[in-house]
Specification:
Rossmann fold
């Protein structure tokens, strides 16, 4: 099927993307999304991150063509060149924005610079890369952007309010980006997982309704496969039961919210 410019659609007959860019190339969730998509061998996956060895090892598990790109989420002035390099080989059908770090609030309270780097990684770096990617995808007339938000975005808690503030900003940005791209052929899928048991939360006691990178990957892949990979919808909660919990969080009086331990 041709896209709106009259060019051949870059998706295969089953709706699988031909070229995929993962920003945060060693992200557990990002890699689980790629695994759950069961991409055909001819797919080209671009893993963008800092750890070349880990990306190379992860790429061997995907069973697709893989190329690695140097990406530092906090090096904002390099992000336009990164996106230009990613799109230089042709249209990119799927961009997964998965860069992120989690640092304890106690450390952030002691070192505001570390807090600033957390915000740049979890929010600002997504803005600079995705604005550049959105411009290229708008021009090609098709594609999907996946933004990894969090339940923490709904209402920041005192136990991790810097992380929550960064995710709140990212969540708002993702919703605004979706509105700005409406009607262009480019979709934005906003993903809000709960507590994810994985490398980033190692040593922490799981919160209620905790999930795993594999579960998030499966839920995102299922949504992306809907309707042959097009019009995936704007939001997915993982697990889905988090949606009413988030509504309750919003309604909780502030004095009670302050007592929340996590």
């Amino acid at each position: 099927m041709p896209d709106k410019r009259g060019m051949p659609d870059q998706h295969g007959a089953t709706g699988s993307p031909s070229r995929v860019l993962l920003l945060g190339g060693t992200s557990e969730i990002g890699l689980e999304i790629l695994a759950a998509l069961r991409l055909p061998p001819e797919t080209e996956v671009l893993l963008a991150g800092r750890d070349e060895q880990r990306m190379a090892a992860a790429g061997k598990e995907l069973g697709t063509g893989v190329r690695t790109l140097r990406f530092d989420a906090t090096a904002l002035d390099t992000h336009q060149d990164l996106i230009d390099e990613a799109f230089a080989g042709g249209d990119v059908d799927l961009v997964i924005s998965a860069a992120g770090i989690l640092t304890s609030q106690e450390i952030l309270d002691r070192d505001p610079l570390v807090a600033g780097l957390l915000v740049e990684t979890n929010f600002t770096g997504h803005v600079t890369t995705l604005l550049a990617a959105a411009r290229r995808m708008r021009a090609q007339g098709h594609g999907t952007i996946v933004v990894l938000s969090s339940i923490a975005a709904i209402r920041p808690r005192k136990a991790n309010f810097v992380y929550g503030a960064a995710k709140s900003g990212l969540d708002a940005f993702g919703r605004g980006l979706a509105d700005s791209l409406h009607g262009t052929g480019v979709d934005v899928l906003l993903v809000r997982p709960g507590f994810v048991i994985g490398r980033m939360t190692a040593g922490m006691a799981p919160a209620p309704l905790a999930t795993t990178p594999a579960a998030v990957g499966a839920a995102v892949a299922a949504r992306l496969r809907r309707a042959g990979g097009t019009s995936p919808g704007s939001l997915v909660w993982v697990p889905s039961t988090l949606a009413p919990v988030a509504a309750a969080f919003r309604a909780l009086p502030r004095p009670l919210w302050r007592r929340m331990p996590r």
